[in-house]
């Protein structure tokens, strides 16, 4: 990859040999890997139960541009603008192809062609548009519909519903026909062409979106409105480092691809279909976890987005609320009360994992979901999400599940969760997974807390199970075994027990934290999923060992497949592609590791530590209780600026914030627009007003 002065632009003159690593273009509703003749729509799946997968939708913009004479190629992904650009330069002309999934109008995808004459010539310049599109799909029975305002139209339904009696989604595509060639006439120095594609679930919406696209083209607003939407997004978040170009590019790539998986911050449709490990551009049958939503969304991707975008965080919670009926059905089928969220989720919330054992035993998903809700409340104080938004049903339903799922054993006077699979999927049918039991405990405690806030009577069993559930601990070796009977030194697949410290926040001494890290780091599969090492890095940063943390974080670079910063699940390039889970873990290592941010009930805690090769970390737009803060971290100094802000989803006005320095107890009010600089006092807390 060439070194570009702008770290937000990834440029190359050669496409990756493995086309899986071409950049995905997505907007939370439509997802597509450039040049691929298949794309996907959020919430459109085909297949029943374990056969359910993202339905392949044919893409009319699967077009490559060719010039007849020798050319020099340049391929760029501009992450600031969300546009992929292919430039072909010859002696006589330059052709530029731009592709994007519109950031503001979610049903719209665009291809633009610009042809410029480079030499004085009276000859016409012709470009070929080589298309691999066919109007067919193995998942959707398409029929040709009547043309609409010059656009071609096909419509169809998926062949099989997600569950018996369920509905089959409808898909309408309307697009500008793509000719075989385009010509720049002799008398013109340049010419532009625009091609739009609309994908929607109804004819009315498809036609309205196509009308919108044509109007935007006619007024010259199509591309500017897209770029403006991306600009607005980037103004609300920035994560950049000085001192390491590779780290800076990696962070920008992570933010870009994660944001691409979420809807517009102005979207009010409530139709968001969640985030799968490979995003919307991937997930067809047998690929990239079939496009299902896992704990990856709630534990790995969500925290880094929620820190900046409360509206996008709420969209994740609303997705889970929309699957309550399915979760209730799952619990009943297992013989338990309350809600059991699926290990693999599509639209209904019913379990769609192809292998039953994961859905039956990997029950920590319930605690992962409720942890996201808890995180959201502490960040925003948005109680409307729990009242009118039905978030309380999720929290109470999961609490009821835990109470019905545990067993009481008189011999140790503890509650137990038997027959489970921990996050480390090398083991199954084990008892008392320390991670599972801890997220159950946290979920039950939060249910009691929320019930008090909402003046809802809480069953006494919630508190009792939370208090007496077993959290495995080895007194002799002073560490947490992964589950009851785990033999120290046995191999593990991925981050599991090390997540007790972060993100779960289980209280423990520095000695125990260190022992957990040292016990599991050497036995963790080096070829395991990419998100693992970020959790180890955060642990070492908590203990003040920045360089050890950095060595572990650098392992993640093996999963970044150039030139477009696309992640693979495994370091050898195998597994899921555009692996958003790994990106989320990596991003958290910086956002919650270098800064030490901890979202707590009464405050946002901060304790920063930078490794030697990072001179400066800029984090812009941290959104806490409706107030946005910009941070500039250096080795011995932190500068904080509180922005003027409208408020969070649950607060019409932002709360007044004050900083309390941990060492001295000094209280410092934050004044909007005024920089607050602290030197040699990098441990502080930001306090909120009480509920």
TrEMBL record:
It is an enzyme of class 3 (hydrolase). It comes from the Eukaryota. Residues 266-488 form the Glycoside hydrolase family 65 central catalytic domain. The keyword Hydrolase applies. GO terms for cellular component: cytosol. Its EC number is 3.2.1.107. It catalyses: (5R)-5-O-[alpha-D-glucosyl-(1->2)-beta-D-galactosyl]-5-hydroxy-L-lysyl-[collagen] + H2O = (5R)-5-O-(beta-D-galactosyl)-5-hydroxy-L-lysyl-[collagen] + D-glucose. GO terms for molecular function: protein-glucosylgalactosylhydroxylysine glucosidase activity. One of its GO terms (biological process) is carbohydrate metabolic process. PANTHER family: GLYCOSYL HYDROLASE-RELATED (PTHR11051), PROTEIN-GLUCOSYLGALACTOSYLHYDROXYLYSINE GLUCOSIDASE (PTHR11051:SF8). Catalyzes the hydrolysis of glucose from the disaccharide unit linked to hydroxylysine residues of collagen and collagen-like proteins. This is Protein-glucosylgalactosylhydroxylysine glucosidase. It comes from Maylandia zebra.
């Amino acid at each position: 990859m060439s070194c570009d002065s702008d770290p937000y632009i990834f440029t190359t003159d050669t496409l990756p040999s493995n086309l899986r690593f071409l950049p995905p273009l997505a907007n939370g509703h439509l997802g597509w890997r450039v040049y691929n003749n298949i794309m996907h729509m959020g919430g459109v799946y085909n297949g029943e139960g374990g056969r359910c997968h993202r339905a392949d939708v044919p893409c009319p913009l699967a077009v490559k541009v060719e010039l007849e004479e020798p050319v020099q190629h340049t391929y760029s992904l501009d992450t600031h603008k969300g546009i992929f650009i292919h430039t072909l330069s010859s002696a006589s002309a330059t052709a530029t192809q731009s592709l994007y999934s519109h950031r503001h109008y979610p049903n719209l995808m665009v291809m633009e062609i610009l042809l410029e004459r480079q030499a004085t010539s009276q000859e016409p310049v012709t470009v070929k548009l080589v298309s691999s599109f066919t109007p067919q799909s193995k998942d959707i029975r398409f029929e040709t519909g009547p043309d609409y305002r010059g656009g071609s139209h096909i419509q169809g339904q998926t062949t099989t519903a997600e569950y018996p009696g369920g509905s089959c989604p409808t898909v309408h595509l309307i697009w500008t026909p793509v000719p075989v060639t385009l010509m720049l006439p002799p008398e013109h120095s340049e010419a532009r062409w625009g091609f739009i594609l609309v994908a929607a679930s109804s004819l009315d919406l498809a036609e309205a979106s196509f009308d919108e696209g044509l109007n935007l083209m006619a007024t010259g607003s199509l591309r500017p409105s897209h770029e403006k939407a991306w600009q607005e997004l980037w103004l609300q978040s920035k994560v950049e480092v000085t001192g390491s170009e590779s780290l800076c590019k990696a962070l920008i790539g992570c933010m870009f691809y994660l944001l691409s998986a979420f809807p517009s911050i102005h979207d009010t449709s409530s139709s968001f279909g969640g985030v799968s490990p490979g995003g919307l551009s991937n997930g067809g049958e047998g690929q990239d976890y079939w496009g299902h939503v896992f704990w990856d969304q709630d534990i790995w991707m969500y925290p880094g987005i929620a820190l900046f975008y409360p509206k996008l965080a709420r969209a994740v919670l609303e997705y889970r609320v929309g699957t309550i009926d399915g979760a209730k059905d799952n619990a009943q089928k297992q013989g338990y009360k309350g809600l059991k969220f699926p290990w693999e989720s599509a639209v209904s919330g019913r379990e769609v994992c192809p292998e039953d054992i994961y859905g039956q035993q990997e029950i920590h998903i319930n605690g992962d979901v409720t942890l996201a809700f808890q995180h959201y409340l502490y960040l925003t104080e948005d109680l409307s999400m729990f009242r009118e938004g039905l978030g309380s049903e999720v929290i109470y339903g999961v609490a009821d599940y835990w109470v019905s799922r545990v067993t009481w054993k008189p011999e140790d006077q503890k509650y137990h969760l038997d027959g489970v699979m921990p996050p480390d999927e090398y083991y199954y049918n084990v008892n008392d997974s320390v991670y599972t039991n801890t997220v159950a405990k946290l979920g039950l405690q939060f249910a009691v807390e929320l019930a008090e806030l909402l003046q809802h009577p809480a069953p006494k069993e919630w508190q009792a199970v939370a208090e007496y559930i077993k959290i495995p601990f080895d007194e002799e070796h002073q560490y947490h075994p992964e589950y009851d009977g785990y033999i120290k030194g046995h191999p593990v697949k991925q981050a599991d027990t090390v997540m007790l410290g972060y993100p779960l926040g289980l209280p423990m001494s520095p000695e125990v934290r260190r022992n957990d890290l040292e016990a599991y780091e050497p036995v963790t599969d080096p070829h395991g999923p990419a998100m693992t090492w970020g959790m180890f890095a955060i642990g070492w940063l908590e203990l003040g060992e920045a360089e050890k943390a950095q060595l572990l974080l650098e392992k993640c670079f093996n999963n970044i497949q150039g030139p477009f910063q696309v992640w693979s699940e495994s370091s050898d390039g195998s597994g899921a592609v555009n692996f958003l889970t790994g990106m989320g873990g990596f991003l958290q290592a910086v956002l919650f590791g270098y800064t030490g941010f901890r979202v707590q009930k009464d405050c946002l805690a901060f304790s920063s530590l930078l490794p030697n090769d990072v001179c400066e970390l800029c984090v812009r737009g941290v959104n806490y209780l409706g107030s946005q803060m910009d941070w500039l971290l250096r080795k011995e100094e932190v500068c904080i600026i509180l922005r003027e802000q409208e408020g969070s989803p649950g607060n019409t006005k932002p709360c007044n914030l004050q900083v309390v320095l941990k060492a001295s107890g000094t209280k410092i009010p934050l004044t909007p627009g005024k920089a607050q600089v602290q030197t040699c006092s990098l441990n502080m807390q930001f306090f909120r007003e009480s509920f």
